[in-house]
Amino acid sequence: MANIPDDREPTGYRPSDDDRPSGRDDDFGRNREDEPSNPAYGDHDLVPDATAEIKAMAKEGLNHPSTKPVLTGAAVGAIAGGVLPVVTWPIGLIAGAGFMLYKRLRP
After folding, report:
1. SS3 of residue 31 by DSSP
2. pLDDT tens readout for residues 4-23
3. Helix ranges (DSSP H) in 30-66
4. For the whole prediction, is pTM greater than 0.70?
5. Which of 80, 45, 42, 74 is nearest to 57 (CA)?
6. Complete DSSP assignment for 38-96
7. What does the alpha-carbon distance between residue 15 and residue 27 come to, in Å, rounded to a whole number?
8. 31 — phi, psi (to 5°)?
9. 74-101 per-position pLDDT tens digit
C-alpha cells in the first residue's frame, strides 16, 4: 500500500518492507538477505512422489507397504460416502484412497 501523507502521526507505525532499506536487520537481528527465498507453503514434490508410489504399489501388489492402508482408506471412504446423503460411494472411495495415500507420503 502506498503511504498517504497525513497531518497526524499514526500510533504504532511500522514501515512496510518496501520502505525499509534492503540491508537492514529485522526485529530479531537477522539479515533479510540471509533468509531463503522459498515460500513457506506448498509441497512441490508431492505429485512425483505420489506417481512413484502408485507405480510401486501397482508393481508389488499387496506386498507393498502402502497398498493395505490405501485400500482400507478407500473402503472406509466408500462406506462413508454410502452413508452420507450428499456424497456418493465412488467419491468417498476416491477421497478415502487419496487421503490415505497422502498420509503415507506426508505423515
Report:
1. strand
2. 655 555 555 565 655 555 55
3. 46-60
4. no
5. 74
6. S-SS--TTHHHHHHHHHHHHHHHGGGSTTHHHHHHHHHHHHHHHHHSSSS-HHHHHHHH
7. 12
8. -90, 135
9. 999 999 999 988 889 999 999 999 999 9
